[in-house]
Amino acid sequence: MNIVVLCKSWNHKKVLEILAALRQQQLRARGIVALAPEKPAFSSLLRKMRERGAKKILQSFSSNGHADSSRLNGVMPAGDSDRSLPDHLKNGYSQMTIAEYAELHQIEMVVVRDLNGDESVAALKRMNTDILLLGGVPIIRANVLAVPKVCALNVHMALLPKFRGMNVAEWSILSGAAVGVTVHQVDPGVDTGAILYRETIDVADCPNLAAMRAKVSRQQHQVLAKCVRWLIEKKFAPEPQKKEEGQQFYLMHDKLRKIVEHKLSKGYKLASPRHILGLLSALLKFGLEMETFLVFV
Fold first, then answer.
1. Stated pTM of the model
2. Distance CA 36, CA 30 (A)
3. From the centroid of its chain, how far is CA 99?
4. Do 145 and 183 fall within a single domain?
């Protein structure tokens, strides 16, 4: 079964977590098709330097694959054996670029200018792709989704079908709902493909958004790899979604993010229906602002 990862060449942390999780399931990626990095506009670079500091920005370039363009051109040979870890990478995979990991584990890697373009489709066909894993990519078009023989899979940071779209872990907390992940097949819609598996994640021990997202991110890639194994072993059947069952969410406003941070800092617990109804009654009776209500849900 040929497993191929579709990703951005600079999104190394997410992709390496996926590849490592596959290895834990005794699975190996056949190949990686990665979007080539774009040179940032000068005005955007200056803004990021002001916001985050010049040193951090320069370090990000050296760690995300932009600085080593020689590793991001052409095709790397595929193979089965691993080679010894280079000296500068002995502290762990977290410091690797995707290209370095691919070279170390002899995974074929192709860098393309458009993940939805002919170049990408040709690479996936040549790799004889059976299962395509999405590793933090923009919307993928039907021409690419038609290539894998089995399916394309994505892991979503919320429980589908209720929470579709962006910042869905945050929206789950704001709504008082369970936090979790969903592995689903990818179709041309936004998080509307058939569901393979859902898993809730306890985030009561996460004091802030960064800790919550890190925990969910780590676990979602483990879940994705398990689902690939189960799919190969035909241990479950996909569950189709109905479009009207869920809602699409968008980028969360900073004021709402602060409310989510506050809820996490207190130790996040699911809101019971009785609790919510009581608070809504207080809202109507005393004329509290909705922002005050959400803090205490």
1. 0.77
2. 19
3. 19
4. no
